[in-house]
Design goal:
single chain, alpha+beta, five-stranded antiparallel beta sheet, 4 helices, 11 strands
Length: 221
Amino acid sequence: GPFGGITAATMIRAIELQADVHGFPVALTVNYLAPIVDGEFDVHARAVRTNRSNQHWLVELSQDGEPRATATAVFAVRRETWTDTELQAPEVPGPDGVVDASGQFGLVWPRNYDMRFVEGGLPGPDAGESASSVTTLWVRERQSRPLDFASLTSVCDIFYPRIFLRRGQYLPAGTISFTVYFHADEPELAAQGDDFVLATARAQRFSAGHFDQTAQHWTST
């Protein structure tokens, strides 16, 4: 079955294909209600309000007559304004000197990506617990294609669960809710092309059977 990133990407793409879409993605939240299995599914996207500069959407993905995922999204018209980025990308070696480790996952979907871990790779059987939940990697799609909003949405969910790294072992875990904020615009995506994206993630708290994680994705230059 698909991983959460491709489900979220499908829902963004469903909005992009609507005749009344206004602007480009700036925010998306997907809630995963139940597993999506192999087979057909339906996606219904509805604009609930369109303002002069932004548009609000509701999306539902259903399978066999049952809802499997819901989403809210905000699209907006981007304008040239004052711009600054306070957060800085981590300083890491380039991807050329790092080995592709996507084959370590033992799953089908990671094979669609070239994933080169700089730190916090998938723990081995004797890894033991870690004091840090940070993972940083270079990633790009294995089948070369220019980055767009759908593929960017998908790669935002590239990280394995942070609990694996902290505990040093595989544990039952699944995504309940997933939010993406899109700071890149179309020219920036076009400039990125099919090159590697630098991605880094960490958890903030583990408690009562749940945990969060926050991540950033950076262009290759």
